[in-house]
Specification:
3 domains; 175 residues; single chain; mainly alpha; 0% strand
């Protein structure tokens, strides 16, 4: 019988450690300021949970100092991050609504996200068609399966955030 691994207590949190955690995170992922703030807060709060005598407000202050420092070095840039993400979502065929929600989740302001979307050519039909091709649904499904799966295909596109009129056009059916 295999025993479950015992979770060990987190290592001591200092300003230097927070900076190292942030740099290691940024080495692996691009991030917005708010997203990195949430990542670091989770680490500090986890440490404070295990060590109640730790001053949480001091740790949160260190996070803000580290974030300002990283922004000053140019490691964190919300506009650059948002441009990359919006371009990637558009290439993946994601609808506007989906993109705006994802940007909000990552701490990017609605104004910046909408500005970046307005600067891109966005055709909902083209995006839905691209997603249908990627998922091999609708017109990209074998002919004998199209009628059988049209409801599931429509649901996938609607759940992805496309308007029903666009979905009807992509799937090529009249209601």
């Amino acid at each position: 019988m295999v025993e479950a691994k015992k979770k060990r207590a987190p290592r001591k949190i200092t300003k230097v450690r927070i900076k190292n955690i942030a740099l290691y995170y940024l080495k692996r992922f691009d991030s917005s300021v708010e997203n990195l703030r949430q990542v670091l807060k989770r680490r500090v709060k986890d440490y404070a949970y295990h060590y109640p005598d730790f001053d949480l407000s001091q740790g949160l202050g260190w996070i803000e100092e580290v974030l300002q420092e990283l922004e000053g070095f140019g490691y964190l840039n919300d506009k650059r991050y948002a441009e990359i993400k919006v371009r990637g979502y558009l290439e993946a065929g994601r609808p506007e609504r989906y993109i705006l929600n994802k940007m909000r989740e990552k701490g990017i302001g609605a104004a910046l996200a909408e500005e970046l979307l307005s600067g891109q050519e966005y055709d909902a039909f083209e995006m839905a068609l691209r997603l249908a091709k990627k998922k091999k649904i609708g017109p990209f499904r074998p002919d004998e399966q199209r009628k059988e799966f049209w409801q599931k295909d429509a649901a996938k596109l609607v759940n992805a955030g496309f308007d029903y009129d666009v979905v009807k056009e992509v799937l090529g059916f009249q209601v």
